[in-house]
Write a structure and sequence with these properties.
The complex is a heterotrimer of chains A (504), B (243) and C (274). Helices cover 48% and strands 11% of the residues of chain A. With 504 residues, chain A is an alpha/beta fold. Chain A folds into 3 domains: 127 residues, no CATH class; 242 residues, Rossmann fold; 54 residues, no CATH class. In chain A, strands 1-10-7-4-2-3 form a 6-stranded parallel beta sheet, with helices on both faces. A 4-stranded mixed beta sheet of chain A has the order 8-5-6-9. Chain A is elongated. Chain B is α/β, with parallel strands linked by helices. Chain B folds into 2 domains: 116 residues, Rossmann fold, CATH 3.40.50; 115 residues, 3-Layer(aba) Sandwich (Rossmann fold). Helices cover 51% and strands 15% of the residues of chain B. Chain B has a 4-stranded parallel beta sheet with strand order 2-1-3-4, sandwiched between helices. In chain B, β7, α12 and β8 form a beta-alpha-beta unit. The longest helix of chain B has 18 residues. The chains are: A alpha/beta (504), B alpha/beta (243), C alpha/beta (274). Chains in contact: A-B, A-C.
Chain lengths: 504, 243, 274
Amino acid sequence: MSGAGAKAGDKRKLIGSGLKLRAKDALGNAFLRGAVAFTTDKLRGGRLNAMAEFGNWEAWRERGRAIREHTIRHLDYYLSQFAEGVAKAGGHVHFCASADDAVGVFMEIAGRHGAKLVAKGKSMVSEEIHLNEHLAAAGIKAVETDLGEYILQLAGETPSHLIIPAIHKNKAQIAELFSKDAGRPLPPETKPLADYARARLRSIFLEADIGLTGCNFGVAESGTIVVVSNEGNGRMVTTIPKVHVVVMGMERLVPTFEDLEVLLNLLPRSATGQKLTSYVSLITGPRRPGDLDGPEELHVIVLDNGRSEQLGDPVFQEVLHCIRCAACLNVCPVYRHVGGHAYGGVYSGPIGAVLTPLLQQDMAEAGQLAYASSLCGACWEACPVKIPLHDMLVHLRQRKVGMKLNPPSERAAFRMYKKVFANVKWFRLATRSARLLQRPFVREGQIRKAPGPLSGWTRSRVLPALPERPFRDRWAELKRELYGNPADGGKGPSGSFDGGGDGR
Amino acid sequence: MKVSLFITCIADQMYPEVGESVVRLLHRLGCEVEFPEGQTCCGQPAFNSGYRDEAREVARQWIRAFEGSEYIVAPSGSCAGMIRHYYPQLFEDEPEWKEKAERLSARTYELSQFLVHVLGVEATGARFAAKATFHPSCHAMRLLGVRGEPERLLAGVEGLEMIELKCKEDCCGFGGTFAVKMSEMSEAMVSEKARNVAETGAEVLIGTDLGCLMNIEGRLKKEGKTVRVMHLAEVLQKGAERR
Amino acid sequence: MTGPAGSIRGKDDFIRRIAVRLGRGEPLKEAPPRDVKGVPEFYRAAAASRQELIDRFVREWTALSGKVRLVPRGEAAAGAAAYLEEIVTGEKVEAVSLWDDPEIAGLGLEAALNRLGAETVVWRESNGGLSGDGGDNGHDPDDGPKAEDGTDGGKPSGWRARSGLLRATERCRLGVVCPDYAIANTGTLVLQACGGRGRSVSLLPSVLLAVFPAERLVMRMGEALERLRSEGETKGGLPSSITLVTGPSRSADIENDLTIGVHGPGKVHALILV
């Protein structure tokens, strides 16, 4: 959607069409690149150490994969069981097909309680449904209590990483944000900034009408919500406010506590290298009679929003196995250089590039994210549940081609490729022509400025010129040299190649 | 032992001397090398860009070319990986061709894999005095499970001092059409790779895949760096001179 | 252990759509068979002695900056009192929150703390507050902005509505709990919440002390979860909250600098009766 009137600013907001612009912005931001590289290096190292220390990592990955596969394959059963469990424990389950449904449910709960303040734990799904915007429109204040998300909320920005959302902000910037928030100057040092956040957010926890969290895993057998946290904000928002609302993707289940142990062994190690997060909250229903803290009301919003569309798809059903650990982000060489904002949406990195077009069911725009990858496969290798993200990216490209969404010039180019490369005679003809066509661009065996699409290469690299004789034209001589000519009794002419033979 | 050389389009057209090194090396190690003339390309450029039908037709040509081969060896983890990992599924709906694809893919090897696991060779009698560093190919590692074979072969080269490359398993940014289509991202990746190479102080950069090597060398040259870039086969064939 | 009934809305269409997408005419009602479940055998199998469990817990706990004291069972009360004295003095503790629990009572911790001059807030309803209602110390909006509802520097209205007990607990600097289980291979406390065992006790104060006999140690999380589930079955359900605590609260969100003690206790102590 780029027309004559589209401004660069508007274009940036388009997930696909704005990808290169956003990437360029990121590539020009030295601090961001340094911060992303530093953070991902740290997390990668953490993960590798944790894997080595734990041992048998491949066996664990296979377990994780098998459990998630079984769960998704029987999601109708487990989701039903899960809901029964939540209800039996006194919680209220709301199945919501769309983002709007989910927002509607939340607003209804908020309205019923006259809620003015919502304390939010980290929840990607709540961002997926744009909950904060709706709350703001209704005059309800929502405060992000995850420290990184709080920083971003003050800055009016979106996360650049799944687990450590504000890595693109330095202490000076954070101090500026916090000073403004506090109404007094705060130094750009970690301790005073953290102390401020602690006190400030504590007052939020204590005053909030509703606590909102996501759900890392739902345990189907008991209707238990599992929330992991290092800071403790996940505990705060599920202990103090009167109402706790969980917003969860429908795929975030494990069948039993036995299975939970496997996933809790995989998740923290893959995410940060920790054996376990500081806190794991296992929540089964609201407070019971006799409990003196904990929410009086528990609501669980189970969201579809494009997920069920992936069920039954032999390629993409597996994307629902994801446990949102961000290991793929940390190893992705593209993410390393452009950070999360370049992906233009809630989910970034390799998982984001696959999930966004699928959930949004948009190949034309979001589908372009599938090209933000060199298909190196590092994501697949790092994924604790073995999702073949690298293959899914190719499948997305195939889907786009199948829907004829690619430029006609590209389609023509690959038709030509097929014609030339599926036939040796055409191949020889084409490669001979290429040698003629390259001549104007060759200087001293190199091409420093190539035309057309190849200019993308020569802007940053030198391109070698095609040598006069390809290998296949030299084969006959080489063969004679090594194996002789049967006609002359095995003795062939000596080689006449550049470099060759022994004894150098 | 008869070995069919799967030259790969990039070696055939752009680095014929690497092809020659491969042939001489295999010959020296006792193989009878043949070159099926019908080969052109494995089809990966089309496949990776989502043009599955086009890729399939090119793959069909490859299968025709290598139909009778016992061992198929390529100086490329990426191309060998394409055959082994993707050819059978490319012909999912054509049982006859799927069978051919499965049969041939089981016989296809990347060079270092072939030397170490089929020929059982690690010391190739090579002599090459230099300080060098090694960049592993993403596809060799992740599609073929090649991890350590090239290094072991290089350890068997007399006089060669290997220095570990920082973040070696990070992609160099080639990715075929990615390098041209997403050129800015690719540039960022290759420039970090080039920087890491330069930081090792090595005189030579060695790799198993010519896409990677062309990419990194292209960047090094643009930056005016004088690191020599060589394919594993060239080093093992006693450091054949490149132009 | 039943409270008000829960509810489910919108299930039928939602589940049916899933079933249809998965190729089923009707949603699956029977538990599907499984060949792979839970942790791999090699992980499940390893048995450990009591001493190994203690050593492992201590190693993991201290690696996360946790402090630990081992006290022979015979000297439990005295040992606990001594450790408490160190903590109270070292952390300048004035008020302590404790679980209302026979174990804690049995160790005489409340009395020991009072002897040290610390005020104690046991987690029970009748404990409405320390120094009057809507008090002055504890949650001090000094570092925060104006109150949410526009009142001046005093307590905002949301907070006013909280129980006195919660407010009193919030003012405590130390929280004392006795976990049902402790997990050795990760250095984790297992805290069930119900009745006198409030979640806030291990959450609001900035220092935590967990007291437990070594018998409560298991090697891995799965063992603790299994037992909790069985207990739940006999009690008619799991408690509304089970918290696994592994070390202090932490964050690296400010330029990757590690901050210890954000919203939960930053100093954690374990006293193990051996």
